[in-house]
Amino acid sequence: MTTPTVLPHVDAVQAALETIPALAVYLGGVPASSGWVPPDKYCVLYPEPGEAVRESLADQRTDFMATFQVTCVGGSLERCLWVADKVRQALSGPLSVEGRSAWRPEDLGGPPAQRDDDTNPPSWFVPVQYRIKSIPA
Fold first, then answer.
1. Which pLDDT value is given to residue 130?
2. Mean pLDDT across 52-77
3. If residue 133 lies in a helix (H) or strand (E), which one and from where to where?
4. Which segments carry the region annotation Disordered (predicted)?
5. Which region holds residue 101: left if phi is over 0, alpha if psi is between -120 and 50, else beta?
6. Is the pLDDT of residue 56 over 70?
7. Residue 127: beta bridge partners?
8. What's this model's pTM, rounded to 2 decimal places?
9. Which residue has better confidence, 51 or 60?
10. 3-state SS assignment for residue 70
11. Domain range list for the chain
């Protein structure tokens, strides 16, 4: 019995997002260095640790389930929504996690896009949540 781990799943989601041309992908936040200038459009992946789920009444916890958020950011509302569309496309197929069979990420949606006046220049963002599941291959 192998207990599933979260990092290969995070790597699979990040790899899927990095297939989007002309889009910067960050994990857990944007660079904190002074002088960093955000790109015109980018996304930030915020994973959770997930949970090992019972595969049967035998209580073998080999299945995996997690929810994660992708915050889509753009210099305009249109660019923010472009990022959300590209993220949705990139996550429309099953993930590739070594040694596991993964379902397609389930799109859980998010709130309306919002303007962020704390950035200079102002930007737009929308957090979109997804649920992933996998079982041993």
1. 98
2. 89
3. strand 123-136
4. 100-123
5. beta
6. no
7. 71
8. 0.92
9. 51
10. strand
11. 31-136
CA distance 78 to 43: 14
For 70, residues 6+ apart whose C-beta sits below 8 A from its C-beta are 17, 43, 44, 45, 46, 87, 91, 127, 128, 129, 130
List, for residues 95-136, the tens digit of each pLDDT value.
999 999 999 999 999 999 999 999 888 999 999 999 999 999
**Residue 64 DSSP SS3:** strand
Question: Any idea how long the chain is?
Answer: 137
Looking at 1.10.3470, 3.30.2000, 2.50.20, 3.30.1760, the CATH number of the domain 31-136 comes to 3.30.2000
Cβ atoms 124, 73 nearer than 8 A: yes
- Which H or E element spans position 84? helix 77-90
- How many angstroms separate the CA atoms of 55 and 52, rounded? 9
